[in-house]
Batch of 2 targets.
Target 1
Amino acid sequence: MKCINCGTDNRLKDRTANQGRCRKCNHLFAFEPTSMSNVQITDPFFAKAIADISANNTLFFTPKQLLYFLDNRLKKNYKSISRFGWLFPFIFFNLVTSITIFLPLIVNLVVINFFHESSKSTKLNLVSRKQYARNLQIIGGIILSIGILALKSFTLFVIIVLVGMLPIYLGTRQIGRIELLTQDFLISESQVKDWLDRWQQINGSILKILPSPKQENTPATINPDVTAYSFDRLVVCDSASIAQLLIANNFHFENNCAILSITGYPQSIFNTTMQMLRRNPDLKVYAIHDCNPRGIGLVNNLRSHANWFLNSEIAIIDIGLTPRQIIATKRGMFIQSSLESAQAAKQLPEEIRQSLSAEELAWLESGKFVELESFTPQRIIKVLQKGIAGSQSLEGDDSSLLLVGNTGNDMYVVESFG
């Protein structure tokens, strides 16, 4: 493992002999991968993850975003196999044993089951699961090619065809639906918290990681000259964490907009900001939220509450996340599932259900959900900027926007999340 302080490569015996320190500069290592259980990380791995999620220390990020980021990187190598490392031994075995039937039949069924179960594993990322599914198709082709050429009995021919077609069918089916399969975390929030504490204890504070949003109920004093103005745009988030993320990364300054959460964050300027916003009849509101029953209800909350935009005719653009975007995407989002989310989806008000297709409702009622914090800060900012830029003229032919609702109560939905 290389020392992040001086770059010296330290083998295990070097680290052991120096009580976990670098043999050259004596810098203490934060992690010892050989003593870890389910996953192993190194100091260079963790340092690169921090640099990458923060875009080389230029963007703030939340602890949960780091959890998703680390989980994805660890899954790339977790119980995975090389793309073609298994191929030649598999072909050789089938060629050598082709004169018999029972031994290769049993072994092939075991191999098929292994690859099929791996393609369904929620502990692997979608790229690895798709690789296993494609390997199933390859296995089927090999079994058919070798078996048909080597066998002359019609009965054995039928058996080989059935065994060969099985992995082709299973692999094709998995590839067709793999983008919408759910995942589980390989690591936990408590593990990441322990790693962060250990890292900062040794290497100093991580400047770009955000603390939990603070509740500041005391109104801030704002210059009257400032409150005389308004904003042309408002971004409303369904969580204080995302609002804090955007504010910390100066999204409001760079895009000339106000940023609030549906929970009222930041509380100290919420009322004043809303007074300023209501002065602008041409205000555009952009909603960004998790894809779960609570998030899907964000736009409806903005329309139906007096402290937001009840009886207002302003345009509201739903940036996402929506089930429509997830079903249509091919990027492999981190989809989770829970019984609580399924129950909440079935209790959605009728006015929200009417804005969703049957496919979207089925997706939500199955308990699936996607969190905004599964995306990096850079991705969230780019998607939001693109959504704002694409809605400058709502009367134009912008194919990226879908009108939902009726006159006087318009809601525009961005069809693609990035």
Note: The longest strand covers residues 315-320.
Target 2
Amino acid sequence: MRLSCRHPLLVPALLCALAVLAAGPTAAAEDGSDTHAGAQVARLYEDAAVATRQYEAGRREAEAQRAQAQRLEGLLERERRQIAVLREDLGRIARAQYRTSGGLPLAARMVLADSPEEMMRGQHAVWQANLAVDIAVGKSRRAEARLAADEAKAAAAWQALEKRTSALAGLKKDIEQKLERARWQLQGQADASVAAGACRGAVRLDQPRTRFTSKWVAPVEAYELSAGFGSGGSRWVNRHTGQDFAVPIGTPVRSVGEGRVVRVSCGGPFGIETVIRHPGGYYTQYAHLASVAVDQGERVSPGQWIGQSGTTGNSTGPHLHFEVRVTPEAGSALDPQPWLAERGVRLGQG
């Protein structure tokens, strides 16, 4: 009947970790240590990822607690039924005593007995009846006390569960709100750079610890595919020359393979963009960025963060425009999907 938490220190640790995450980036922004929002957004992305993992761990723990509490509710209901049976037994015994005694006290019945044997039998029957009553009363009292204690445990467990879930959700939401504000601050800086026609310089980001075993990767880790190669519409003079990835502002953009940065520019229809030359003479373009994390002439490796997505230039919303070219200039684009598929990267799988 006990309701116990298998990991009593897990939730306080999660809440402390999330509190640090929620407070950390704000403090950095207030003391002015970050001159560019890109670094703050990158850190907040990491914080949000950690917060999500911690929240999911807490949610799983809460679900386990919920299941245990529901099992306890079932046991409590069983105890209530048992107590009802005990109370019915007490009533039955009391009614039987009343009928067999004929309303006479025990002393009177013993005086009126015809023989010592009859008197002893009567005394024994009364003793047995009293013992049965005492046992039934004791069982009922113990069951009622146990029920009261278990009901208190169940109520406390449900309250703790609701408080825990609310706290985890609140801290996660706080980080996500900070991330959203930082995204638009980053986009504002990017728009100013595009308007001036000059890049602010590389925003050095802490690179992910992931070491890719493949030579080629998708340009962003999590995405939804939007406009594809060759799409028509009023947004383009001719056909769409690349593959668009719908991602939030500030999403880390990765080099799809090993190569060298041959262009970093700010302005024009592509907004902030970078172009990388890969072995074999192919080029990839990453456009409408909010920031770049590499300089022209720099060598990059597969999966290296080279910038952050945005909505600069001729863009209708946050996304990454990705092109594969046979020259560094526009007008030589290939369909990115089969090009990446030939290299083991099938888009749509994240």
Note: Residues 76 and 151 are 7 Å apart (CA to CA).
